[in-house]
User: Fold this.
Amino acid sequence: LERNKGEALDMSLATKPVNRVAVERRVATITTRRSVKNVQQAAWLLRSVTMIDLTTLSGDDTPGCVQRLCAKAKNPVREDILEQLGAVELNIKVGAVCVYADRVADAVKALAGTGIPVAAVATGFPAGQILHKHKLEEIRGAVADGAQEIDIVIPRKHVLCGDWQRLYDDVKEFREACGEAHLKAIIATGELPSLSAVYTAGMVCMMAGADFIKTSTGKEKTNASLDVSLVMLRSIRDFYDRTGFKVGFKPAGGIRTAKQALSYLILIKEELGDEWLNNELLRIGASTLLTDVERQLYHCATQHYAADNYMPMP
Assistant:
């Protein structure tokens, strides 16, 4: 997959009015018009596991917490469930493990030899209210420790003040600091004033070279939703149609149930097609989602529901 090389900032291409009523009407059909059941549901849920960025972003994270999370990342679904589903040979693993920059070295050590990448949040996550030079230092430090993906938070002040050139320049510098590591730009949609601003912010980040655009930090009052996701997916489609570069999408924050995860997969399939239904172009940022997905897979295998405590999580 060729990385997004970015392009010169062109606000005539980055700006588009968004009709909120039309957006709400479109996403309302996702949960009522589409239904995935039985064997197909198990297949979709197993695929969703491979797209999860298994995340811990707590103030009390320790090396032990990260090690336990990585153990789950390597074996996200109980082996007896996989055996009953005939899915053992699929070698199911999560898309990545996402931690603070300070815990990157712990995660890299715990995941050595697995092929699971480590993602680090950076640039003063979640608020982004630190000096620009410190943001660059944090990115370089995380990459030096072995992070292969960097989730940066955009400076929301640039969006709120309409300073799109500053946003473009900042994200471009973040991309350069990442080097070979992939950059996910967190738009923090819950703190933006309109869906039009969401579209423009995502487009400017892609023009600056972002490999992914991501809905939220998970720390805002309002996080991922189908509404903002639709707008961001349309911006990805517009960018691809114009440049030929495929940019990934990551909804994050508040996605806790298997039903929610399936709704996002259906929306992405309908808007961008099957080409985006893989962990190179789609990630789901979550810390508790995996438990419910595993419960649903247990039901697919046994026709019985298990309590959460039957599904081991760190």
Observations:
- The chain is about 45% helix and 10% strand.
- Residues 226-243 form the longest helix (18 residues).
- The first strand starts at residue 52 and ends at 55.
- The mean pLDDT is 96.
